[in-house]
Amino acid sequence: MVKKTYFQLIFFSFFFIKETFAAESGGMPQLNPEFWISQIFWLVLTFGIMYLVLSKLILPKISNNLESRKSQILENIEAAETQREDSDAKLKEYDEIISKSKLQANSIFNQAREKALKDIGAKREVLDKQIDNEIAEAEKEIDVLRKNAPDKINKIAIETSSELLQKLIGAEVNNSSISAIVDDLSKRNGDKYYGN
Amino acid sequence: MAANPMSQFDVYRIGPEIKVGAFDISFTNASLFMILSTLSILLIFNLGSKKKSILPNKIQLLAELSYTFVSKMINDTAGSKAKPYFAFIFSLFMFVLFCNMFGMIPYTFTVTSHIIVTFVLAAFIFIGVTVIGFIKHGFGYLKLFVPSGVPAVLLPLIVVIEIISYLSRPISLSVRLFANMMAGHTMMKVFGGFVISLGIVGGWLPLSFSVALTGLEILVAFLQAYVFAILTCIYLNDALNLHH
Fold it and tell me: Which of A46, A68, A70 to mutate to test the interface with B (most CBs of B within 10 A)?
């Protein structure tokens, strides 16, 4: 408010100055009304033409340019957005495929392992059975051999002792008496030799 | 001529005297610089709006930056209702700015340093704003002079003050621009005169002052154009959106 009244004072003082210095040529040229009408005329003319040309021709073009740029930028942003969404979806798909295939690989591996384990178990059982059979057969053979062994030994003992006797006393000895003795001996000492 | 710091504001006739009736509308140096200013504005903005490229070149960028600068200024101070007056305020701002800036070139004439020019602009704005206010609000526009929330005792005084301040708008608006331009240019001329009169020995100090003043005056030239436009926006805002 003070500022405005101050300016008012200045303004009116200009008129006052003009009145006092009007006679002199060296006053303020601004207050010489000689060309006021001319200045007003040219101001209205130039400003009016400029306003008309700017408002009707130039400013709409600039605003159009700005609008079209804005809309294009918005379109581009939209396009970029949709493309980003697409790529996100694809990425998700890819992740799903990867996790699915991982699961599959896992299950395939597990199946294969189970199968292999089963195979190994079955083969081992078969082998165990075979081994058991073979062991049983071998044991049988050993048993047979063991059962036959005293008889053979007895026989050998009888034959060798009869031949010894023949060579020692030069007489034919009755095999049956010798075998009786041998049997008797082997029965007595059988436990000692065969451990049964 | 050079000795008088006020002689730079002299208006003189260029060419023959033109008279329409009793009125002298001769072409003067003031008319010349008005035409130069408007022509350069039209040239720059025409070049700046010709091409429709997404990536603007320099002159297009200049035009578009000015456009957005003024439109933002109007939108901030007067709101979206002031959109129809954009072209006028844009023209006003550019005209005052270019006239001020042309005045900064040595040996030129500053159109806006003449009270009659700024007063015609301010009076036109004042009348236009008042007409717009009465069209928009009818006699309700007079409520502008009655601020709300004022004690009844003070009201007669406040109303008188408000009316005076409203009526002094064109004067303050025109004198602000004119006085700033005239004072700045006179001061520069005075300091320039000191440089000459003090000569090679003592002239350096006023010369450095002159250089600093030139920078200041360029700032003032822009600032005053901005102030002129923004005050117009504020007055327009009062007329469009009655706040009181």
Answer: A46
